[in-house]
Amino acid sequence: MKCRKCGEKASINMRQHRMALCKDHFLEWIPEQTERFIKKYGMFARDEKILVAVSGGKDSLALWDILTRLGYEADGLYLGLGIDGGIEYSAESQRLTEEFARARNLKLHVIDIEKEYGHSIPVFSEISFRGKDKPCSVCGLTKRHEMNRIARDLGYDVLATGHNLDDEAAVLFGNTLQWSADYLLRQGPVLESKEGLARKVKPLCRFYEREMTAYSIMRGIEYIYEECPFAEGATQIFYKETLNQLESARPGVKLTFYLRFLEAKQSGDLFIQKDEKPPQLHPCERCGQPTSAPNLCSFCRMLEKADAS
Ligand code: Q46
Ligand code: ZN
Ligand code: ZN
Questions:
Q1: Is 53 near ligand 1, meaning CB less than 6 Å away?
Q2: Over the stretch 173-212, which tens digit does the pLDDT of each residue have?
Q3: How many domains does one find in the chain?
Q4: Of 4, 75, 218, 309, which one has the fewest beta carbons inside 10 Å?
Q5: CB-based contacts of 233: which residues, under 8 Å, 6+ apart?
Q6: What is the CATH number of the domain that holds 105?
Q7: Residue range of the domain that includes 94
């Protein structure tokens, strides 16, 4: 297999694009494409301040690397969740993220949830569900709250996450199986800002996971290989495997699934927009973030419950 651009030996073959590239050209192609997606979907402008949510995994570190290579002003945010799971997951991912930032002289904000709020994520979850459920719902709630808080308090315009095509296609697959119209209407590369919350963007949403793995390895990025110990067995992983089976029989099917969805949504043909008014939002009495609940947002209610226990 030869590189399409220079004819040298290819390092990666992307069947969905019918294109193989050598290492050097692949490492050029990824940022070029990212820049194209940033413009196409109107993610952010050159003068906007970007906060990248970094977890120590390949996607978020690759995203940070790409944005800084493209010359954007992008700082990192790492949330210490206090997850151990026998592999010191949080400690190791924090070490790798800090190392990444130090080596490149980048600004990284680190928020330790336990120091900030008195308990780690697994403990919050234990209190909320008495150990009956995985910590993922508490974790997701906390991550969203903290990302919004830091972006607002430190004046960032945009919050960027490292979701790749495999993540987005799996979420789309799940929402389609359920015909969850509300979620489908909200899914996309950009979630516009509202009520004082920063805009949320996913610049890697058109890259396959294997492309991000290849990019990270070729760029020499050291990232945490292990998934969070709670991710195992999640429905999303099952959907990813199912889509990978489809992909090996029909190369490109994952990308087409996602892109056709975005096109259909943009054209307005596929979905009947409901006339209902969106829920009335007002600031949470404790933290000030917008909520539809009467007094406190769900995160602050969780904190109150934990304090009272
Ligand atoms: S939600 Fe669940 Fe993730 Fe939080 S507890 Fe781990 S798997 S990190 S993306
Ligand atoms: Zn080449
Ligand atoms: Zn609140």
A1: no
A2: 999 999 998 889 889 999 998 887 899 999 999 999 999 9
A3: 1
A4: 309
A5: none
A6: 3.40.50.620
A7: 40-267+296-308
